[in-house]
Amino acid sequence: MKLSLDICILSCICHFALGAQAKSFVEAISAYPELSNFTSLLNSNSGLALIFYSISPTAPQTVLVPDNNAFESFQKSTGQTFASQPYDYIQNVINYQLLNGNLKSEDFGHTAGITVPTGLIGPTYNNRTAGSSLISSGASTGNHNGQVVFIAPNTTSTSFSSRQLGSKGAYVQSGLGHQVNLTAIDGVWDGGVFQIVDGFLTLPLICTQTIRAWGLKALDSSLNRTGLSSVLDHVNNVTCLGPNDKAFLQAGSPDTKANVSDLTSALAFHTIPQPLYSNFLQDGQTFASLTNDTIRVTIRDGAYYFNDAKAIKLNVLTNNGLMHVLDRVMSPLDSTGASSSTKPSSPTATVTSAGTPSSSSTSPTTTQSSSAARALVLESSGWRIFEILGFVYSYIFLLF
Ligand SMILES: *[C@@H]1O[C@H](CO)[C@@H](O)[C@H](O)[C@H]1NC(C)=O
Ligand SMILES: *[C@@H]1O[C@H](CO)[C@@H](O)[C@H](O)[C@H]1NC(C)=O
Ligand SMILES: *[C@@H]1O[C@H](CO)[C@@H](O)[C@H](O)[C@H]1NC(C)=O
Ligand SMILES: *[C@@H]1O[C@H](CO)[C@@H](O)[C@H](O)[C@H]1NC(C)=O
Ligand SMILES: *[C@@H]1O[C@H](CO)[C@@H](O)[C@H](O)[C@H]1NC(C)=O
Ligand SMILES: *[C@@H]1O[C@H](CO)[C@@H](O)[C@H](O)[C@H]1NC(C)=O
Ligand SMILES: *[C@@H]1O[C@H](CO)[C@@H](O)[C@H](O)[C@H]1NC(C)=O
Ligand SMILES: *[C@@H]1O[C@H](CO)[C@@H](O)[C@H](O)[C@H]1NC(C)=O
User: Looking at the structure, do residues 167 and 255 belong to the same domain, yes or no?
Assistant: First the structure.
């Protein structure tokens, strides 16, 4: 029998290598008929199975095992089988589906979601490093610097399998903001646990590719006009607050009408030099933008606002951080005028709880004292921006 021969070969390599984890993994998932495609992929490719050998029970991993639907939809959308993809690609995707730690059903129920480091490393797909929030939030074992996934409960899920399992479904969000459904089965193997997903994760790309995939044309052309595309693509640790096309239009089309220096300043105002995954954000928290102006987070009824802009899509992961897509171009905090009517009222919460993830390190104590003097109104377009600070250019290029 081919299967038993392969398992024999695997176990020989295992004994030769670090232990019986790989055999345990293949055996464990073999019990699930809906995982047969992944089982045969590993059985026919001992190189891939090697990935599982190196996982030590002292640094357990959660495997997001793609089910047969994942293989089918991959083939539908690309016209090619997953197994026929370049080896590097397959390896990266599998590494991305290896999550740090033992993640079980109860971990997927946090309404704010969780950000989890994975085995995907190397600058092409992970040009960022973990901040203290991420390190302190349970990624204490394994490679906490690996690229992350964002997992949140799918509150609208009514699918039979989820109800049958007595747990809510969840989604896993990866590169380009793509989501796959997670079915928590809390399967156990020697190297940790495994869960089922119905799609392959998408490897995070650089900012501009992500922005283009999202069809954010005004933002894209603004980055092109200012020459900031390459800056944004090659900086580590970034949160890009990306207004959509409607937002640019509403703001008087600064992408085409503002001059390059104003536009540069506005883009820097929408960039925060650290990755801010939404689950670490707290109502009332403030951050300094690249222009060193204050951006305040407001959380209301589950919606996230950055100053007066609402995030319409959170945690679109890029290789160097992430993007939150906004419904408007942000106004400076203390600007007055038309925008104030849609501005969320001042949050009252303060960041004090010792139990919350390292708020001190993620929240530079910015103030808003001097912004008013620096806020300008472009009369012609009605678009509010900060005046060009002499140091902005040099500051940006020093930083990057
Ligand atoms: C996946 O499994 C199905 C059976 O569920 C089978 O028909 C199909 O050939 C398999 N595909 C691959 C790529 O192994
Ligand atoms: C990663 O970041 C460095 C800057 O630290 C940059 O030079 C490099 O081009 C980036 N690589 C990728 C693949 O984005
Ligand atoms: C990325 O940000 C974290 C804090 O969020 C910091 O510890 C780390 O040094 C930064 N890495 C780079 C390459 O700037
Ligand atoms: C959540 O579940 C609903 C209903 O089953 C489904 O339509 C939707 O696609 C799911 N969302 C995600 C992110 O998987
Ligand atoms: C998630 O599940 C829902 C149904 O439960 C389905 O409509 C949707 O297409 C699934 N999403 C993916 C990415 O497979
Ligand atoms: C920005 O520049 C890139 C590369 O030069 C180009 O492919 C892209 O279409 C440009 N974007 C817009 C919106 O013009
Ligand atoms: C850009 O426009 C602003 C007005 O919004 C003006 O103050 C500034 O001088 C202009 N800069 C250049 C380089 O033309
Ligand atoms: C940023 O602004 C704060 C006060 O708002 C100030 O203390 C700090 O020195 C500024 N940093 C830079 C780099 O200008």
Answer: no
- Which residue of 3, 36, 85, 198 sits with most ligand 1 atoms within 8 Å of its CB, as the best mutation to test the pocket? 36
> Which among 197, 219, 240 is the end of a domain?
197
Q: State pLDDT tens for residues 208-245.
A: 999 999 999 999 999 999 999 999 999 999 999 999 99
| Residue whose CA lies nearest to ligand 2 atom number 10 | 234
DSSP 37-104: HHHHHHHT-HHHHHHHHT--TTS-EEEEEE-HHHHHHHHHHHSS-GGGS-HHHHHHHHHHTEEES---
Which residue of 129, 137, 272 sits with most ligand 3 atoms within 8 Å of its CB, as the best mutation to test the pocket? 129
Rounded to the nearest angstrom, the distance between the alpha carbon of 263 and the centre of ligand 7 is 10
Q: Which domain holds residue 76?
A: 57-197
Tokens of 255: 């992408």
Measure 78 CA to ligand 3 centroid, in angstroms. 36
Residue finishing a domain among 172, 197, 222: 197
Residue 309 pairs in a beta bridge with: 306
Atom of ligand 7 nearest to the CA of 385: 5
Point out the ligand 6 atom lying closest to the alpha carbon of residue 217: 13
Count of beta carbons in the 10 Å neighbourhood of residue 211: 26
Model-level pTM greater than 0.85? no
